Amino acid sequence: VTGVQTCALPISAAAVAEARRRLEAVVYFDYDKDDVRADQQATLDAKVPVLNANPDVKIRIAGHTDDRGSDEYNLALGQRRAASVRRYLVARGVAEGRFEVTSFGEQRPAAQGDGEDAWSKNRRAEFEITAGAASIKAP
């Protein structure tokens, strides 16, 4: 009698794509604020298991602002937003050294125009995988 052989099933491309989507999902901020909004916490919480399953992955968090305020103020606000997101993830057990924070202030808008519709899309933190992208696995 032979024993039952088991083998791990390959993780589907769809599961890997979903893990990458979670890591790169943008979070948004209120006007002139750098604290993580309650309605954005689930987006950040979804990153944690993916980061835990992929210890070699490193992320650049880029803070952005709308075009109201001086260039200097907006660069500082974008930096505070990126740092706030990093603190949120570190508080959930992800090593701080896995994150780089930067700010683009108002320099790279996601949406053009004046008015809350455009401004709300520009007040954000974006996530770029800077290491470990080739070997991402689903949690």
Summarize the structure.
The chain is of the alpha+beta class and 139 residues long.
Average pLDDT, to the nearest integer? 93
Number of strands: 4
Approximate shape: elongated
Order of helices and strands: HEHHEHEHE
The strands making up the biggest β-sheet line up spatially as 1-4-2-3
**Range of helix content:** 25-40%
Largest sheet: 4 strands, mixed
Q: Which oligomerization state do the chains in this entry correspond to?
A: single chain
* End-to-end C-alpha gap: 35 Å
Strand content: 15-25%
Our count of helices gives: 5
Q: What does this 3D model show about the protein?
A:
The mean pLDDT is 93. Strands 1-4-2-3 form a 4-stranded mixed β-sheet. The protein contains 5 helices and 4 strands; from the N terminus they run H-E-H-H-E-H-E-H-E. The protein is elongated, with a radius of gyration of 18 Å. The protein is of the alpha+beta class and 139 residues long. The protein has helices at 13-24, 41-45, 47-53, 71-90, 116-122; strands at residues 27-28, 58-64, 99-105, 124-131. Strand 2, helix 4 (71-90) and strand 3 form a beta-alpha-beta unit.
Helices and strands in order:
Elements lengths: L12 H12 L2 E2 L12 H5 L1 H7 L4 E7 L6 H20 L8 E7 L10 H7 L1 E8 L8
Parallel strand pairs: 2-3
Antiparallel strand pairs: 1-4, 2-4
